[in-house]
Amino acid sequence: MLKRSVTTNDDRNRGPAAGLAVPLLPGQVVSSMVLVAALVLSLIDLVRPNDLLPPVTVALLGVAICLMYRQLSVTAWILVGLSLGTLAWALWTGIGVADLVMVARRVVYLPTLIVAMTLLRVALQETALVADAGAYVVFQPPGRRYALLAFGAHIFGILLNIGGYMLLCAIAFTSQETAKVSERIAAIQKRRISTALMRGFAATLFWSPFSVGLNILLPLRPGIDWVTYLPYGLAGMVVYAGLGWIVDRFENPRRARAGAAPLVVERQGRVSALLGMVGILAVIAGAGILGNALWGVQMRAALLGLVPVVAIAWVLIFSMPGAVGGVPAGLRVFRTKALAGLSANGNEVTIMTTAAMLGLLLGLIVDPGLVQGLILWTGLTDIWLAFAIAVAIFVSAFLWVPPLVATTMIVMSVTAAGIPIADALLVLAVMSGWATSMLVSPMTATMVIAATRLGLSTITVGMKWNWLFSAVFLCAIGPVFWLIWG
Asked: How many C-beta neighbours within 10 Å does residue 92 have?
């Protein structure tokens, strides 16, 4: 149970310096430094491409994964085996060195982006800004709870990644468990909290500059970049979020929510704190767009370089004279917590590295003529093809295929086969299928975290609670494609 706390002026000045440094094992330090080295090499390759850097970076990621092997889940081990087996298959079929370098260059970005985002999460997560923003979105009356929880999960998910999602889950579910309500109302609260958090987090896929999906797929379609795609991604996100709210209202009409009470307030939340987090996101994204417009810096390179800078700047701001410990203490504690946080990323780094490698290699191995023949046989073109792709990715979730693998393989195959389809349409279709598959797939972290916290099966939390929304959204996204590209 969360302890009752009240926000004070001293509280608001607490940053990383407020925590106590904990001893680190040598293996934690080494694995963290290896990950930082991989981040640096990935950034250098984005700014000044060199074909030697991607293979070296992959090797560093492999070393880090070996050092963190105790953290790996069953899913991660399966992906390690499949990716290594597929690599052996690709080498046996005679894949060229240039193709291997291309795969390596596209594989390394996602895990190194996780490294950069970990630094930002460590800098932000223990500040009063995050605690107050989390409290504000959680402790709301029933009528506003879904919308603010979804919005909070969206912003927290972009800035803090899965750590932000876990933080809101902890606050919301712990508070719900202390509420004195009937079993019927408790069941409604659990379902609404879970669906709001999962859908809000999944919606980040559509447009976030840190989106795993966009950062692996946009480089596969050279005709489009993040800035060009952004309006379409925002449109998809609005439809996804809006339908989520409508379905929540349909499933939980006012009379069904009668008797529900606001959750127990454990901390005084502030709307200004939530707006502050939105401001941080705007600064990072805006700086990346500005760098791209003025100096031609790739958006991916700008983000990879900006995020650690923002993290360190945040630590310095919250560790200035007057804060606990001062600047030197703040930097020392940040360094310790950053090393601890980086060394705890074994599962995430492994899954991102191996899933991306598996999808990219399969995309190269699959015969483009086979894909082209299959699509021509179905007679699907443009909008109908996009809709079929979205549904296929959603269905693949029930076959235990990780969304990253399915989407990467599909986009590479369609691209290699030369199928005529608008870049933005293809990417939006893929993101639509991925965002819905996240709500039902037992392979996703968001699903496992919510189901484990509630003590329920992934079938209940996923398919039972999200089937209607998934069906409604997939049926609605087709007309959206037609309105834009018809």
From this structure: 8
